[in-house]
UniProtKB/TrEMBL annotation:
One Pfam short name: HTH_IclR
Keywords in alphabetical order: DNA-binding
UniProt xrefs under InterPro entries: HTH_MetabolicPath_Reg, Tscrpt_reg_IclR_C, Tscrpt_reg_IclR_N
Protein name: IclR family transcriptional regulator
SMART domains listed in its UniProt record: HTH_ICLR
Provenance organism: Pseudonocardia oceani
PROSITE patterns: HTH_ICLR, ICLR_ED
Keyword DNA-binding: yes
Domain HTH iclR-type: 1-56
Boundaries of every IclR-ED domain copy: 57-238
Taxonomic superkingdom: Bacteria
Keyword DNA-binding: yes
């Protein structure tokens, strides 16, 4: 577990020496643990560099832990119903210590340009889900994670005044939008879900091919999304919102 914790805290592929130092173990013992973790899929090793990283079993464990959060279970029923009403793919996301992470996907009837994997970490500035979290979470919580994404070129740099304008629009309208900014040909509209203390708990998003971007489609989907987000918030105990 100390080896896995070292890999998690490292934030990316790591050499054996660094894993050993971070876990407080001798390199020989660390290597033996890594061999066992490789066999069970909790760790992978890059063939060209020899660096170690968290493997598919670790990702599945993390996603399952997120899925069991009560807020996700409550929102999941509404997400499926929203998919059935709109015909479009619906996402649920939680905020994690790496940024917004997808924890559920209800596939719609319309093919999308790409299928986003459950457990994926989304760019905070460029995705509508990221913008919804950024607009409603406290800056001391989001700032270091956003800065880390920007250092790794995983999220865009927007001028402060432009970012403030985008986030104000999210708070005013109740939704965040992204039109092809993450994946070309994919438009996503997202809304925050709040808990009993009016703290954002989950973000729910509707993804659609870019051809569904006329005003009538957008208004209908936005209305369904807002109604769903408010219904989930009410079920989680959030005070009634206008």
């Amino acid at each position: 577990m100390r080896v896995l914790a070292a890999l998690e805290e490292g934030g990316g592929p790591m050499p054996l020496s660094k894993i050993a130092a971070s876990s407080g173990l001798l390199p020989g013992k660390t290597h033996r643990y890594l061999v066992s973790l490789l066999r069970t899929g909790f760790v992978t090793q890059e063939m060209d560099t020899g660096l170690y990283n968290l493997g598919p079993a670790a990702r599945r464990l993390g996603v399952e832990a997120l899925r069991r959060v009560d807020e996700v279970g409550t929102a999941s029923r509404h997400a499926s119903a929203l998919r059935d009403r709109t015909g479009h793919t619906v996402y649920l996301a939680l905020w994690t210590d790496a940024g917004p992470s997808l924890v559920r996907q209800d596939h719609g009837w319309y093919p999308l340009p790409i299928v986003v994997r459950i457990g994926s970490i989304l760019p905070i500035v460029d995705s509508s889900i990221g913008r919804a979290f950024l607009a409603h979470l406290p800056e001391p919580l989001t700032a270091p994670i956003l800065a880390a994404q920007q250092r790794r070129k995983e999220s865009s740099h927007l001028p402060p005044e432009r970012l403030a304008q985008v986030l104000d629009e999210v708070r005013t309208t109740g939704v965040a939008t992204a039109t092809g900014s993450v994946i070309a040909g994919l438009n996503v509209i997202s809304a925050p879900v709040f808990g009993p203390d009016e703290h954002i708990e989950v973000v729910i998003g509707v993804a659609m091919p870019a051809r569904f971007d006329d005003d009538r489609d957008a208004r209908s989907i936005r209305a369904e999304l807002l109604t769903t987000a408010k219904a989930i918030s009410a079920e989680l105990g959030c005070p009634v919102q206008d």
